[in-house]
Amino acid sequence: MFTAADRLWLEIRPACEDLLPQIVAKAEGSRLRGTEEGTPATLSIRAFEADTRRIAALEALGYRPGEPDHVWFRLDLSQPLPEFPSPPGFRIRDCVGIDPQARAAVHRVAWSDLSQIGIENARSGFNEDIYLGLARAPVYDPALDIVVQAPDGTFVANTICWADTASGVGIFEPVGSDPAYRRRGLARLAMLEGLRRLQARGMRWAGVGTAHFNAPAIATYSSFFQPLDRTRWWTKTLA
Question: 68, exposed or middle or buried, with CB in 10 Å at 0-12, 13-18, 19+?
Answer without folding.
Answer: middle
